[in-house]
Structures are given as C-alpha cells and as structure tokens.
Amino acid sequence: MTVIVECQKRHEGSKPKALRREGLIPASLYGHQGSESISLTIPAKVAEKLLKEASVNNTLVDLNIPDLSWKGQTILREVQTHPWKSTSVYHISFFAVSAGTSLDLVVPLHFVGEPHGVTQEGGVLDIMMTELPIQCTRDNIPDSIEINIAHLKLGDSLQVHDLPLSEGVTAHVEGDRTVLAILQSRNSEKSGSAEGAEEGATA
After folding, report:
1. pLDDT, tens only, 127-161
2. Is residue 97 scored above 90 in pLDDT?
3. Is the CB of residue 104 less than 8 Å from the CB of residue 141?
4. Closest alpha carbon to 59 in 143, 146, 185, 116
5. Distances from the Cα of 173 to the Cαs of 94, 157, 164, 178, in angstroms?
6. Any idea which of 9-13, 22-26, 121-125 has the lowest mean pLDDT?
7. CA 118: distance to chain centroid?
8. Is residue 61 helix, strand or coil?
9. How far apart are CA 203 and CA 196, in angstroms?
C-alpha cells in the first residue's frame, strides 16, 4: 500500500509549539541526499489521516514538497507523540528510498484458520510473535504475512523459517525463533491428573 502526502518546507526560526497552534505538525525528511535532512511541516489533519492509513516502518509514502520541487517515495520512519496524550502528534520523520535500497521493516503476521489442535484436540493457541522484522526492497514490501495455521495439531509449533515469505523478502530474526505453538490446555492437564488419581484410588 502507498499513501500520498504533501508537505511544505519549514521556515527557518519557526518554533514547534507555534506551528502546532497553527495546525501544523513539524516533520523531517532524511535519506534524500546523503546525510542531509529537510525540515518540513504537514497539516495536522493530513498527519491524522496519514497515521490512520500508514504504519511506521511498513508503508510507502509518496511525499510531495512543491516549494522545493521534490517528489519521491519514502517510508514513515518515526512518529513522536505527547508523553501522555497518545493522540497528540509532535513530530513525523520520513526516510527517502530508491528502487534498489534495502529496507529494514516490521510487518504484521496474519494468522488464517483455526488450528486442528485447538478445535479437535482441546489445545490452546499460544502466539509469541504478532509481527516480523524483515529486509526487502521498496518494490517487495508486503502489507502483512499471511499464514495458514488450520492444519496445526496439538504439540505442533511454527518457527520463523516456516513462514511463507515472498521472493525478495528475508526475515531479520533467527530462523529457529518460535512464532506460535499449540499447547495442551491446563484444564486438560488437570482432567488427566484427576482421572489418573481416580483410577489409582479405584485400584
């Protein structure tokens, strides 16, 4: 998914608090020209819409800066918010990416289906990871990684190296790290212990 956003160059000497009172959010663009950065502003309403549609380190943003005659694809790199008012955005950072740039991103894991070990064997689904750090180019960024878990049975587990990653996408974490497991429920364990004790008493 790609989001289109228009920003303006921030005037020198402008104060962040004053900008926010005017309905503008301070922003920065990095990576467009080496280590240089551009100070920008983005209308608060545009920023709110952006954050509803884009995720940090996941979504491509087509950034347009008319007064600098610059347009290009970026990644939403960082969003700073008020210490205790999570809805108040203080600053947004964008990072410019070119076609061959290798990106370190984080994408959500989307689990599909109900495991056999849960529906038929009374187990419980224990999820250890809900998102995955990956490395890819801007042309291969997945919105999410879809994983069918309906076939998993009691005692089965899923590791990072089992995930169905598309071509050009590599996991940026150890392959033997566990993503999820189908465990025996505590109720089943207690039931089994109780039955064993009852059989022993009967004997």
Report:
1. 999 999 999 988 888 888 999 999 999 999 999 99
2. no
3. no
4. 143
5. 24, 17, 15, 11
6. 9-13
7. 27
8. strand
9. 11
Is the Cβ–Cβ distance between 169 and 196 less than 8 Å?
no
State the DSSP string of 4-43.
EEE-EEPPTT--HHHHHHTTEEEEEEESSSTT-EEEEEEE
Q: Mark residue 73 as left, alpha or beta (left: phi above 0; alpha: psi -120 to 50; beta: remaining).
A: beta
> Is 191 a residue whose pLDDT tops 70?
no
pTM of the model: 0.68
Separation of alpha carbons 91 and 79, rounded Å: 6
Give the three-class secondary structure for 45: helix
Tokens of 66: 């008319």
CA distance linking residue 42 with residue 181, whole number of Å: 44
* Coil, strand or helix at 128: coil
Q: Which amino acid is at 171?
A: A
Helices marked H in the chain: 16-21, 44-53, 116-119, 186-202
Strand-pairing partners, residue 4, are 62
Q: What is the mean pLDDT of residues 77-103?
A: 81
